[in-house]
Amino acid sequence: METVYDFTLPKGYLDGAGVLHRRGKMRLATAGDEIGATHDPRVLSNPSYLTIVILSRVIVELEGVEAITATTIEKLFTADLAFLQDMYQRINDIEPPVLQVTCPDCGKTFEVPLNFT
């Protein structure tokens, strides 16, 4: 079973010295990654920070960058953040639950995403 996946960022992480880093590796998430991230003080004060913390835990390599931290992820271009969020969902097989519904007017059956928020 593959647990670590290579990626190339669309734009790249630009470090303080002006060096662009594009290639990296992301591993599958564990329950501990997600649970631990919810206890991070930054997430407790701002729930939308959860993505940043989780990505900083599962990105195990970014060429030429010594340590991947939440601050590293914060400095990514938005296109790269969106790319990594999508990759995280795909490799961890996160699919939103769906509900089978039937239209009361036409009787057609279809699926709609179930949103718990």
Give your account of this protein's structure:
The chain has 117 residues and is of the alpha+beta class. It has one domain (4-113). Helices cover 35% and strands 28% of the residues. The chain has five helices and five strands, in the order E-E-H-H-H-E-H-H-E-E. The chain has helices at 31-38, 41-45, 50-58, 70-74, 78-91, and strands spanning 4-14, 20-27, 59-62, 98-102, 109-113. The strands form two sheets. The chain has a three-stranded antiparallel β-sheet with strand order 1-2-3. Strands 4-5 form a two-stranded antiparallel ribbon. A hairpin with a 5-residue loop joins strand 1 (4-14) and strand 2. Helix 1 (31-38) packs antiparallel against helix 3 (50-58). The radius of gyration is 18 Å and the shape is elongated. The two termini are 33 Å apart.
**First and last CA, distance:** 33 Å
The 3D shape can be described as: elongated
pLDDT < 50 runs, ≥5 residues: none
- As an assembly, this protein is single chain
Give the strand order of the largest sheet, numbering strands 1, 2, ... along the chain: 1-2-3
Write a brief caption for the model:
The protein has 5 helices and 5 strands. By secondary structure, it is α+β, with helices and mostly antiparallel strands. β1 (4-14) and β2 (20-27) form a beta hairpin.
Highlighted features:
3-stranded antiparallel β-sheet; elongated; about 120 residues
Protein topology:
Layout: E1 4-14, E2 20-27, H1 31-38, H2 41-45, H3 50-58, E3 59-62, H4 70-74, H5 78-91, E4 98-102, E5 109-113
Helix pairs in contact: 1-3
